[in-house]
Design a protein that fits this description.
Elements (H helix, E strand, L loop, with lengths): L7 H15 L59 H17 L3 E4 L9 H10 L6 E5 L4 H8 L4 E5 L5 H6 L2 E5 H11 L2
Parallel strand pairs: 1-4, 2-3, 2-4
Length: about 190
């Protein structure tokens, strides 16, 4: 799984896809039809010497609608074939493995969530600046212990993605997560 030829272009496309799919279309303006008011013709069609107007909510007028503004119906989502996504994930993992930035931990035993104890354990590891912890199943104690550390993130092996792999300097797999990753990805 960690010995694939690194394909930078697939990694780039995969990260762009992930960030685009996370994006929401929130910006929204009203057109002349949606702005309140403007039902009555401001002045008669002929005889005033001014330009003809049918509504005071025309985009030219102050208080009028917006002509070509952003609408919240835009779809930013991108798609990518499943094999290409999987290949991008393997490329990221292979790149980290080639740089010796992946390691495994047998177990983490604690009775209660303690950020201080977990932080002390992380400092003993070859973790570097930031650490991505890959779990096989929900582990509330470990997740809560790591939650307050600024450059540490826990993720389930099912949700492993190129963006997180590239964002964090080092990746720590729990031993069961490594086995589960091989079961999931090496079908």
């Amino acid at each position: 799984m960690f010995k694939v030829v690194v394909n930078d272009e697939l990694i780039r496309l995969s990260v762009i896809r992930q960030l685009a799919n996370r994006r929401q279309a929130n910006a929204h303006v009203k057109t002349r039809a949606e702005v309140r008011g403007g039902g009555k013709k401001p002045w008669r069609q002929k005889g005033t010497g001014r330009a003809r107007f049918g509504s005071s909510r025309n985009p030219v007028w102050r208080g009028g609608g917006v002509a070509f503004g952003p609408r919240n119906v835009r779809n930013f989502s991108l798609d990518m074939p499943k094999k290409a996504r999987r290949s991008a994930l393997f490329s990221c993992l292979s790149q980290k493995a080639a740089d010796n930035r992946i390691f495994a931990l047998d177990t983490y035993k604690a009775d209660t969530p303690k950020t201080g104890d977990f932080s002390a354990m992380v400092e003993k590891l070859p973790a570097g600046r930031s650490l991505l912890i890959v779990l096989d199943a929900k582990n509330e104690i470990l997740e809560k212990s790591a939650n307050n550390l600024p450059k540490v993130k826990t993720i389930l092996v099912d949700y492993l993605n190129p963006h997180d792999i590239l964002t964090y300097d080092n990746i720590m797999f729990m031993k069961p997560a490594l086995k589960k990753a091989e079961e999931i990805f090496l079908k």
